[in-house]
Amino acid sequence: MFEKISVYFMTGTGNSYKVALWFTEIAQELGLQIKIQQIKTDKLCVEPDAKTLCVFTLPTHGFTAPWLILRHILCLPRGNGAAAVVLPSRAGTRIKGVSLPGMEGTAGYLIACLLFLKGYTVRGVMGVDMPSNWTVVHWGLSKENIEFIISAAEPRVKHFAKTVLSGQVYFDGIIPLILGVWLVPISFAYLVMAQFILSKLFFASDKCIGCGLCASICPKRAIIMTGKTKQRPYWSYSCDSCMACMNYCPHQAVEASPIIAVIFYYLTTIPVSAYLLNNIVKLPLEWFPINWAGIIQYIYVLTAVFLAYLILHTTLGWRLFSKILSRLSHTHYFRKYHNPAVSLKELNKR
Ligand SMILES: Cc1cc2nc3c(=O)[nH]c(=O)nc-3n(C[C@H](O)[C@H](O)[C@H](O)COP(=O)(O)O)c2cc1C
Asked: Is residue 348 part of a domain?
């Protein structure tokens, strides 16, 4: 049915790349031509035609798809009926021998829906449990659990690939979709606010040697190396918290601190914002059909966090300060995670 597959993957810690590779293995067995491209900031080179199956793999963030892939899908050329499948990977875990699935929510079907609106024929959607990579909120899984989750995922993805490449359709994940629709307010809050704050929790500890590796692997080019004599990474607002920097840093120098979160909380809630809001709501803005107070508070929060992070970044130039802050950060004691089969070198090549 197909002569070629074009695989587009977005990945932070290699899981979604691995899913893409399993798919290509089946395509290779069937003798199909394969094109594979990482979704980064560069424009995707998509030439949809009737003989090509477009495969999209991505991580789940906040029960939905990350901004980076959403943006790329919105910019795709018209599909003219070309076939496409979507495979979001999600946070599988295993606690005391019990496997717990992740929750992709709307991640797969949102992309599928946008592809449909772009004129593609969506032939399959399936969420894939891969080891959770969110090492800001939990420590990385043990080697044994990682191996278990990955060995369960591989046959599922290959079965999915065989099914769609034989011309059948494969739609899975209806229950996560229903839950995802219910969780849309959380996903929305994540996309418009939480992810910006999360990106500002990252900092480089005293272990950082300024090699710039984090900046070079960042799929969103969100890390800026600053400083003249010794360079240090600065996390800009375009960071999607994909976790590549923290989990691939060879010196384990990337941390996220709850102390920074507390500072942001103080700055953005009390007392300045409260004062600001109290005064704004007194203004005669009620007859506008827009929630001005909400918009002003949104701008205020982002500006306050931006400025606080700028000051923090400058202060972190003092080695002693960065050492103390890193030792007070939970991530300093957490095991890191990246897909064991995806090395930094391989990811850098893509
Ligand atoms: C910021 C962030 C948010 C996440 N949100 C979810 C989620 O809502 N549901 C879920 O199942 N997994 C979630 N995860 C886990 C990842 O989607 C999962 O580990 C994925 O396999 C990572 O793929 P990658 O290595 O290709 O980036 C999240 C991870 C991160 C870093």
From this structure: no
How far, in Å, CA of 69 to CA of 84, rounded? 15
Considering the domain architecture, whether residues 123 and 20 belong to the same structural domain is answered as yes
Nearest-CA residue for ligand 1 atom 19 is: 132
Q: Which of 184, 211, 232 is the last residue of a domain?
A: 184
Q: Is residue 104 a part of any domain in this protein?
A: yes
Structure token digits, residue 263: 């500072």
Measured CA distances, 267 to 211, 256, 270, 273, 303 (Å): 32, 18, 6, 8, 10
pLDDT tens digits, 271-280: 666 666 666 5
Q: Identify which of 87, 132, 150, 342 to mutate to test ligand 1's pocket (most ligand atoms within 8 A of the CB).
A: 132
9, 16, 23, 90: which to mutate for ligand 1, most atoms within 8 A of CB?
90
Cα separation, 343 vs 72, in Å, equals 25
- From first CA to last CA, the distance across the chain in angstroms is 28
Q: Which domain holds residue 19?
A: 4-184
pLDDT tens digits, residue range 243-287? 999 999 999 999 998 888 888 887 777 666 666 666 655 655 556
